[in-house]
């Protein structure tokens, strides 16, 4: 999986860090997670605890989007076979499917081809009736890949808004509160459009805490945010939306545009949603690998969030405490954490992403021999083409230049020159970030 693994495996501790990362990504593979959650016995389809009689439906349609949606869809095709009558998904990387059509879209900013494919998906959902079972697949990246500008908004409005929110360090939940109110699909609206069809949402989580309404901006999930909440995001982070976006949100706040459906909306009477996989699944697999290698694993959290460079500091402090005092875990040990950190861009034209900033900040801060690694499980850290990085303190032999790179949001350039970036290519899954800190035995 890690294409440049041989170059990165500088020590046994580096090897363990890389093993943990590969195990984490493998465990989150969408096909594996889907087959664990969905079974078929003749005409009976079981999704989690819900069962569906396939003979009761004239059509079974698979629609959705996201970076891992191709893997989920291929697994569904292998389970359901010719019971699937039609479907269309939007993915970032091309995928071979049988019955379900797939379109390649763009991420993290939406594009014309995203809108075109989403329009076709909405047409299929609009055509569904009470004899239709809609399997709605949603995975990380869907907020951009499934794009349907609301009202008189344009694609450029969505692109500009998304770019400003992402570069402004806004947490994903608040970004999605805005996205829901600029879309004809998000915030429960796929459920509204599909009614009276039966809808089963299959969700692979890329958000901290697994809030179903935040994953992919919750097209099949009730929305408790409002137009007023969306406007407040721009004020809170001192960001300016495009004029058309502000006009649209203000019209919604003033009651001129219907709100997204709340939990008591009858649109959800025939809708169920199942969480197929999440970050905790990845961390558990990494912990198993660490244990097998003779290291004591400690999963600190699957809810990591905040500025990447700041989040790294308390984690490396825990590694130092383990070395010095044997608490909260006795070395040799592996500290594990997952979640979604952010980067507030202040530099100009730098390279990297939150996981690379995490690693460089950790290496600059750390006073010890730990190996620090962090990746985005989708294989693309931020807007970069690497998954993340792995390093110990030796990577910051020029501390002044390393600090300057971090301040300029150019951690990627520095770590790449040092040969510390992790290259996987797109992994086909997306369950947030995974951070691994390997703490060697101080007596060896």
TrEMBL record:
One of its GO terms (molecular function) is glycerate kinase activity. InterPro entries: GK-like_C_sf (IPR037035), GK_N_sf (IPR038614), MOFRL (IPR007835), MOFRL_assoc_dom (IPR025286), MOFRL_protein (IPR039760). GO terms for cellular component: cytoplasm. Pfam families: DUF4147, MOFRL. It comes from the Archaea. Coiled coil: none annotated. Residues 334-433 form the MOFRL domain. Residues 17-250 form the MOFRL-associated domain. This is Hydroxypyruvate reductase. It comes from Haloarcula japonica (strain ATCC 49778 / DSM 6131 / JCM 7785 / NBRC 101032 / NCIMB 13157 / TR-1).
